[in-house]
Amino acid sequence: MKTYRARSAAAVSALSLGCFTFVSTELMPVGVLPSMAEGLHVSLGQAGYLVMGFAFMVALTAAPLTSMLSAVNRKLLMAALLAVCCLGNLATYLAPGYFIVLIARMLVAAAIGVFWSTAVVTAVHLVAARHAVRATSIVFGGVSLAAVLGIPAGTILGEHQGWRAVFAALSVLSLLVFAVIAWSVPAVKIAKSSTRGAMSAILKDGRLMAVFATTALIVTGNFLAYTYIAPYLEQFAGQTAGQISVMLLVYGGAGVITNFAIAPFAAKSLRTCLVIVTALLAVSLVAMNMAVASYGAMLATLAVWGGAYGALPVLLQTMVFKHASKIEGGADAATSVNVAVFNAAIGLGAWIGGLIINSAGAAPIPGLSACFILAGLIVVIATRQRTSRQR
Prior knowledge:
This protein has a single domain (2-386), classed as MFS general substrate transporter like domains (Growth Hormone, Chain: A, Up-down Bundle). It has helices at residues 2-31, 33-40, 44-68, 74-94, 98-125, 132-161, 163-184, 198-203, 206-226, 229-236, 241-268, 270-286, 295-324, 330-359, 365-390. It is globular. It is mainly alpha-helical.
């Protein structure tokens, strides 16, 4: 029994490393956006579209590819997806121009949609039901660690060695995580037949649709600002590259703390936690332009922003599990929809932000971001009130 538990813990940790690698790859242009734009001879907005295009590809492919590959044993599936990530990062490193970088990132995007859709479900499958929220937190901890370690480390490496060195390092990291997953994740299967009909039921479930709408609004608002945080801090707040790295580190560190700390609170009152965290996210974005005059104030604002956002993936995914658990085969299907919505929102946020920064500069971005977050908060509160009346 102890050996089984240790192997399960190792497998859950490996899946978290996989999320770290994929999300670092997805968001790395955020940390090196100015140098990528210069190196590829494109505008900041066009460079930001490397995040947008990636996210839209995930949104388009997550659900159909997850359904297509759902019968494949999870060891083989997860290892193969990391192999694709390795090849995509290697191709980005070697790419002669913008178009090849875009194609390479589309390749990785198709893989991350499946990985993200199945990693959490696989982790929850490997542990006792009472540890499901904790397993979810650990896997999503890889997402937060990508912000606290991946993006800042890539920013520093890119500053000294160029943006191509960043993707070379990601290629090596992908290969190492491939080996860890191949060793630790068991060859478990979730029967494909169990997912039949689940998608139709999910799309008819009002509570799940409300969660997806909340995800769409909050994530759009967050990434409208976060995708262009480096040029915002550089151009509007007057921060140096070193100061930006520290700020991204603080943002990510706060997110890691809340990612793991939120689990016991979520187990007691999931919706209340979501309301509080969403409100804090909106407040932090509203405060951004007011904090530009002080390095300390900006650092504190980014800490609140990162802390609020770090808790959100766990809360939203746990809510998806809660509502999808009553649908046969619903976990994989509902998670794939949530991943698609999540990444479509990343892409939409990056697209809107690109339009703004190209036409009006960085200053309007935080305010518009806060509007999307507040709309998401309204959906959360309205859903709670409707649920209460139904009771």
